[in-house]
Design goal:
four-stranded antiparallel beta sheet, 33 strands, 46% strand
């Protein structure tokens, strides 16, 4: 069947839809920033982007709320309809160093090959506790799942053919829910966890073992429930979105943890007077610089003139915000994800677009 979409002819067949489209480069003062991948015409009604990841050849994989996996390369977009069960939703997409695509959902996990999802609900013969909110694979092929809710579940590690689980009952893991898993430069896994009663923290899986790094506010965390992570050779960056006010602390924020000294510093984007402190996503560019996006709850803004935004955290601790107007970002636009492409450039994900952003260099 053929039909017209954005003045391009589109072919549809067997659950796969292919669209040839063009990006819209518009960068700051001649910079390379501003290249746009626009998925608007490919989204179903009431659907939006929730996660994305790049393959080494520049292919962008974007996951939508209603369960489509969109594949984009050089302006051509392919939509893969994942075989989700009733009420099942995709939660996380991850591309490993071998360019294998992995998907976690509210009920299962598995690898995507040729647009087909190898849906799994067990780990080593044991049922996982859904949802699978985070999935990551390191360069050795070790796979780590963050599967569970606020009261049961934990981490499942696959090394070769062997599975190991980490729960509060059998390890130093403090909480059963997982917010995020990232892979460090040395191949170790860093985990942000949260659970009932304000329990949570940051842990690491290295050489097949779990260790707690920061646990609860007693360890210096702004909140006991870290939500976003990024790690470089020298530091760990922790983000808090925290969509409520807490008399014991600020509304959201960033913390940097020096991996050599253990020093923990706090940074609050709202002090710029420009952007919210509610950190939604974090990424590291090719130079090791930290970039992040923030969200905004209009009902209770901590800073009356602050909005959702994109910024870079300088080594000095200074925050340099990206111009919203330059990239066509609305003040209260939902920015669910920020990610790094194969050459280390930064891209921000909106509900419909993925935009390459940059800052003018002095």
């Amino acid at each position: 069947m053929l039909f017209m979409l954005n003045r391009r002819w589109v072919a549809s067949a067997a659950g796969i839809l292919i669209l040839v489209s063009c990006g819209s480069p518009f960068g700051p003062n001649g910079s390379s920033g501003g290249d746009v991948r626009d998925f608007t015409s490919f989204l179903q009604a009431n659907d939006f982007l929730i996660d994305a990841a790049f393959s080494s050849d520049g292919t962008l994989w974007a996951l939508t709320f209603l369960g489509d996996l969109l594949q984009e390369l050089n302006g051509t977009i392919t939509r893969h309809n994942m075989p989700f069960e009733a009420a099942e939703r995709g939660l996380d997409v991850f591309v490993d160093s071998a360019d294998r695509v992995w998907l976690g959902s509210t009920a299962a996990f598995g690898e995507v090959q040729g647009g087909e999802w190898d849906r799994q609900t067990t780990a080593g013969g044991t049922d996982i506790v859904p949802p699978v909110r985070a999935i990551a694979v390191n360069s050795d092929g070790d796979l780590l799942l963050g599967a569970g809710n606020s009261s049961e579940g934990g981490l499942w590690l696959r090394r070769g053919d062997q599975w190991t689980s980490f729960t509060p009952d059998n390890s130093a893991l403090k909480a059963t829910g997982t917010s995020e898993i990232v892979v460090g430069p040395d191949g170790s896994f860093w985990i942000a966890s949260m659970g009932v009663g304000g329990h949570g923290g940051v842990g690491r899986v290295r050489d097949g073992r779990f260790e707690s790094i920061l646990s609860g506010q007693a360890s210096g965390l702004l909140y006991p429930t870290p939500e976003r992570l990024a790690v470089t050779e020298t530091r760990l960056v922790i983000g808090f979105e925290v969509l409520f006010f807490d008399d014991a602390g600020p509304d959201g924020g960033l913390q940097t943890f020096d991996l050599a000294t253990g020093v923990l510093d706090s940074i609050f984007p709202a002090t710029t007077g420009v952007m919210s402190s509610r950190v939604r996503a974090i990424a590291v560019d090719a130079h090791g610089a930290i970039w992040f996006t923030t969200s905004l709850d209009e009902a209770q803004p901590m800073c009356p003139n602050c909005f959702s935004g994109v910024a870079r955290l300088e080594p000095s601790g200074q925050i340099t915000a990206v111009s919203r107007d330059l990239y066509g970002l609305a003040p209260n636009e939902f920015l669910p994800m920020i990610l790094t492409d194969p050459i280390g450039q930064i891209h921000v994900v909106t509900e419909e677009r993925v935009i390459h952003v940059s800052l003018p260099e002095n």
